[in-house]
Amino acid sequence: MLLFKSLVVKTLLFILIISGSYSSMAQDINDNISTEISGNIFQKAQSHYDRIPALQQWMQANNYSSRAAAGHVLFRWPLRVNSNYDDIPGYYMIQNYVDQDWSDGMGKEWYCKFRTYDGHEGIDINLFPLWWRMKDNNNVFAAAAAAGIVIFVENDIVNDNNCAPTNEAGNVVAILHSDSSITRYAHLKTGTARVTEGQFVQEGQLLAFIGSSGRSSNPHLHFDVRDKNNSWIEPNSSSKGFCNIRNIDSWWINQKQYWEPAVLRVMTHSGTPYMQGWINDEYKVGFCPEVEDDKAQNHFDVNASITVGIALRDVHPSDSVFVTIHAPNGSVVRSYKQAMSNSGLSDRYSRSYRTNRFLLPNDNVVGTYTINVLYRHLIFDENVSPGAFATKAYNHYFTVGCKPDETLSGNLLGSTGYITANSIKATQNILGGKVMYQSAGYIQLNPGFKATEGTVFKARIRDCNFSE
Ligand SMILES: [Zn+2]
């Protein structure tokens, strides 16, 4: 018997969900840094102006180069993954940009679409999927977008797990850069700040982990930029024009495409996970605070039923995923296709979580199973229209029966994984691809083991049910 179920989470772009409000679009319900705190931060910035020459000397002495365009610094992406999440293909999706039109009642952003709300001063970047779990596990941190001086640290606002419409931006770190611009990082996780006021930081340095403090309906980073006059900047801009009326050029070293279609994660569950934002297969706004039940499971008994989950970002309705599940001996135990067209939308939607539940075949084959996901997607490139289709591959491994030991030998070409309870002993000759050994006891690479150029090889001591 096969059970088939498909669930879709979609973001309707004109609906705000990061406002701390369930339905109101009033301008006073927002996740911005308050006028009062913004004023404090700007005063702090001014009090640190005389240290900018020392900052520049420090950067030069340590080879912390700063990239600059005409009149301003350039930024790197303000989020980084912790080492406990670096096997996962992706981790974020953009919820809101800077509003370009306060009064249109919709929130028009730099790309002339409506991925923001009226009066929003920054970019809201959600963790995805399972954002509460990612917050609890410290999977992602706010990173300094450029070198600078830490001028403001609020680390003690404790409403990290609710959506009380108080304390606006929650925990905040602000950095003054060498051109006197300021970057500000809000809703940070309580008590995780790793910097103090007055400290110099280099580009990419850990500031604090991503949280949901202040007026925040889910873990996300509110990243905003003020120029030297304390005016808002939308760091995204394009020579092709669009709708950024605040600044003409991009403030990024490598500006990301407006849409970035990708599979962010493939995982296995004991049942359908419950994720904030949808209920009974239907996307809902609000539900804050809300319990997340990830039902994550990576170790199954023989003949168990398994739910495969695939998190996607910036999906086009013409995209599709092709899923093939291989038994340890390579035979195909299941394959299916999921089309993205059932959303009823004509434009892309920024997040989707697809599940598929099935029973393992009744053959008692124990060992490590591989889920291979091929994501066929319409490429998005601002400069190329219409885009072509491309296919990207993603793998996830789970174990049935949690074999105690594996002894691996011979040539191996292609991405695969091995999960055991006690040991892995290997003399494999790995000829490329991405290969993972995971065991709770020990992993022993014997003479003859070889991973050749082009291989990504990882060994980790974890039990059979571990997943990030
Ligand atoms: Zn925001």
Total discrete domains: 2
Q: Provide the CATH topology of the largest domain.
A: Immunoglobulin-like
Q: What portion of residues is helical?
A: under 10%
What Rg, in angstroms, do the CA atoms define? 24 Å
The largest sheet, given as strand count, sense and whether it forms a barrel, is: 8 strands, antiparallel
Mean residue pLDDT: 87
Structural class: mainly beta
Helix tally? 3
Give the distance, in angstroms, between the N- and C-terminal Cα atoms: 31 Å
What are the low-pLDDT stretches, counting only 5+ consecutive residues below 50? 1-29
CATH homologous superfamily title of the largest domain: Macroglobulin (MG2) domain
**Could you say which overall geometry the principal axes of the C-alpha atoms support?**
globular
Would you identify the CATH architecture of the largest domain?
Sandwich
Q: Number of DSSP strands?
A: 32
> What ligand species are in this complex?
zinc ion
- Share of residues in strands: 35-45%
CATH domain class name of the largest domain = Mainly Beta
Q: How is this structure best described in words?
A:
There is one protein chain. The protein is mainly β and 468 residues long. It folds into two domains: 35-233, Distorted Sandwich (Glucose Permease (Domain IIA)); 262-461, Immunoglobulin-like (Sandwich), CATH 2.60.40. Helices cover 6% and strands 36% of the residues. It contains three helices and 32 strands. Strand 1 (68-69) and strand 2 (72-73) form a beta hairpin. Mean pLDDT is 87; it is low at 1-29. Bound molecules: zinc ion (ZN).
